[in-house]
What we know:
- By secondary structure, the chain is α+β, with helices and mostly antiparallel strands.
- The protein contains four helices and six strands.
- The strands form two sheets. A four-stranded antiparallel beta sheet has the order 3-4-6-5.
- Strand 5 (93-94) and strand 6 (99-102) form a beta hairpin.
- Helix 1 runs parallel beside helix 4 (151-184).
- The longest helix is centred in the C-terminal third of the chain and has 38 residues, at 108-145.
- It is elongated, with a radius of gyration of 22 Å.
Amino acid sequence: MSIADIRKTMQSKMEQSILAFKNNLSKIRTGRANPALLDTVQVEYYGQHVPISQVANVSLLDARTISVQPWERDMGAKIEKAIRESDLGLNPANMGDLIRVPMPPMSEERRREMTKLVRSEGENAKIAVRNLRRDANDAIKKLVKDKEASEDDQKRAEAEVQKITDKFIAEIDALVEAKEKDVMAV
């Protein structure tokens, strides 16, 4: 394995960490409705627990209301029950062939809790990126130890690894800041 391979592997894993972080952020509730909020809710479908998106069409009616339209008529009650029993604090209203999920306005205290959660997720993403940096640096040191690369190559590669890491950390910080603004917006 060469230094270029190590760098490429590290960069792709860091990109995957960012994608996972973005996915986690999409599940954190803001004042506005977001269909991704219901991705974690499981509903029983013929003995299996599946995400709501596999048994219904989930979309937005307006900025504060999610609509869930089951593909089978008898799934409406099960979906409504699953949403109500989830830990999201939502109260769905069944309108026959459509379930309306209004987003209750968040209190100031709840918004602050959500920003703490956003920061915590951001810190976890940074830790993941830093762990990848450490693994890459260890792999580079192993190449030098095995005499497959020079110490000058090591210094250049470690500087480049640090530059890539700094770029991803800055991206995480920007995502955290944007999500915090979104959460605190009334």
